Amino acid sequence: MDAYRGVLRRTPWGVTEALTWLAAGSLQQTQGDPIAKRSTIIAIVTVASVVTIGGVATALALTPQTGSDTTLTLRVWDEQVAQSYETSFAAFEEANPGIDVAVNVVPWADYFTKLRVDVAGETADDVFWVNAGNFADYAVNGNLVNVTDALGEAAQTNWQPSVIGQYTLNGALWGVPQLADPGIGLYYNEELLSVASIDPATVGELHWDPAAGEDTLLPVLQKLTVDANGNTADSAAFDPAQIVQYGYNAANDLNAIYLNYLGSNGSALQDGDEFVFDTAEGAAAFQYVIDLMNKYHVAPSAADTNLNGDFALDQFLQGKMALFQSGVYNLSNVNEGAGFDWGVAAIPSGPSGAISVTNGVVAAGNADSKHPEQTQKLLEWLGSTEGSAAIGADGSASPAVIGAQASYVASWQEQGIDVNAFIDVLANGSVQAPQGAKWAEASDAFESTFAEMFLGRIPVDEALRTAQEAANAAVAG
Asked: Alpha-carbon distance 125 to 268, whole Å?
């Protein structure tokens, strides 16, 4: 992609303030949803050449370097961080002669389906990323290395406390913390705002209201949604069948969208392991988001976004969407792909304020690895400041290794990017991230109903009742 062309004209985030926040452990880690980023390359290997076959990028693993005894593999879903790992592992290999590391990138849409099959077949990578919504199943089934035993409790002093807490089960930590993101923000296309005569400084003050009485978000989104004839969505002549520019990315997106709407309306997806979204407040939050898509047409149809998690991001990067709600996990994507001036503002506030979810990811050791000693060395490296520094140095993600976080702060500050919106939202509190040993089963149980609900095929109240019963039954089962 092109080099950075986004411009944020705000006071940079101070290093002292940022490090204070990062070390405070105020992230209540999720990753019930991804720190989900774009992942278009199926595999990236340190000693590999990328080729294109049938329009799909893949990688050809070459023979290990001369003198190499072991090649370990690390599986991730994030192409940006995979590239950072390449830098990190060059140093690891130099310090550990005889061990090479190959990085495999599996797209988010297929990641956990493929991981489940590979773990069951004992063919999974030596180390692989897991999120908080999926790790417990593997830990309970004995598939993961017990990091507390393998690396010792002293190692945990170097890692983000919130991520440690999220991935601790039965008194043990089941992965080495790698990423620790703050909250969700609202990316905006400065040029599209200008055309609509909307001051970027006002974007962070938008408010949504299911009762419509104090709603300032919808009118702005209508001005920013345009059809092929130049009519905006607030015009009687607007044709929703010919939209060429969307205002916003309302979607069946757990992390970026509906968790935050639930929290901002005094509701939540879960309370502990129990699913609790079937409430009046929960229904109002979901109905508002769905109406943005199906009633007001200011966001893409779920027919486009249900099966393509990158659809809205692509629309934003192509200049076809004015406001894009997401996290710092998309900073690098916007940084490299936006051919226009852009910025980041606070997410819209609801009746209960602007409430965000937070995110984190760990690298889990495969208990069935054929190279346990070498795998432990790799886990130790991933948990070190030197091992994680490359992640922060290029701004690809916010490291969960505390000593590496300064490089992340400095990286974005040097580019003039103000990330305050992602940080400040956490002062309002946060909505619980997905969790529980049965999260994967529960998610499978409710997701098909949610997909139909966002398509407008099942009424919200009926869908929430059905989905919640199915999710809690999966947990109980």
From this structure: 34
